[in-house]
């Protein structure tokens, strides 16, 4: 498979900010927004434990291999000094290294993908007001992904539309309000600018979908029902799909169909390859029974469309 084009922005230039109520955008159906939880947003620190475990395995493998090669080299040099002793061959060394690799447990491809993308995933909460004009708590919970390390975030429009206040929680637990700086209603996309960001914020790498094929492995990362961050794995099950919102108000096309589990709250989260590169933004699930739970078919907006919503150049 040819290597696809990659894009990851690291611009630190200031971004324009606007109001966070999203009222200027046309109304849009709400196919995947999660019901809000009453408590404070969950601390997003579980990823660090997984990252530590992965790095521990990788370091253990590296040092085990280096140690083994050093031992074999010293033995070979010692034996070469003794007349009549067989020298170690390259085949001996290859066999020893292969044995080390076979007996060392490595993280799964999905675990590596999760470790790569999770620093860029954020939890998004939309707050609303009651009839008296008082803010009455969380109205919606969804997911977003950082695409520029100055705090530019992609999510679904239906996650933030109508919210009087938008709050985001970064992977390290930092909380911030955010403003809507752009919308693309035809693709259910919104661009947010966080007002405060972590010092070491990492932007996700976005990958062209040009060479994606049904059967390619993908993972959906986000906050289903507000729980997370969570990861689910599956494959791309179709391309260029169309989807009509449950209320029939909007038709979306050119979508990626996938079977990694997604539920309300996954909206706006990244769909990633096993390299942890973003190929789509999760936007909807197929629900013939109207129960708003996953039945095996999810849809994501291709990242090319999502990047254009943020005014980024094409791949």
Strands, total number? 14
Low-pLDDT runs of 5+ residues are 1-5, 8-30, 37-47
Cα Rg: 23 Å
Would you tell me the structural class of the helices and strands? alpha+beta
Main beta-sheet strand count, sense and barrel state: 6 strands, antiparallel, barrel
Which shape, going by the Cα principal axes?
Answer: elongated
Strand content: 25-35%
| Euclidean distance between termini CA atoms | 18 Å
- Helicity level: 10-25%
- Count every helix, treating DSSP H or I runs of 4 or more residues as helices: 5
Integer tally of domains: 2
Query: What's the order of the H and E elements?
Result: EHHHEEEHEEEEEEEEEEH
Averaged pLDDT: 79
Features:
single chain, 315 residues, alpha+beta, Thrombin, subunit H, 2 domains, six-stranded antiparallel beta barrel, six-stranded antiparallel barrel, 5 helices, 31% strand, elongated, disordered N terminus
Structure description:
- A six-stranded antiparallel β-barrel has the order 2-3-4-7-6-5. Strands 9-10-11-14-13-12 form a six-stranded antiparallel barrel. The protein has a two-stranded antiparallel sheet with strand order 1-8.
- It has helices at 46-80, 90-103, 109-117, 157-160, 303-309, and strands at residues 6-7, 121-129, 135-148, 152-156, 165-169, 175-184, 189-194, 206-207, 217-222, 230-244, 251-258, 270-272, 278-285, 298-302.
- The longest helix is centred in the first third of the chain and has 35 residues, at 46-80.
- By secondary structure, it is of the alpha+beta class.
- Helix content is 22%, strand content 31%.
- α1 (46-80) runs antiparallel to α2.
- Mean pLDDT is 79; it is low at 1-5, 8-30 and 37-47.
- It contains five helices and 14 strands.
- The protein is elongated, with a radius of gyration of 23 Å.
- The chain folds into two domains: 6-40 and 114-309, Thrombin, subunit H (Beta Barrel), CATH 2.40.10; 49-107.
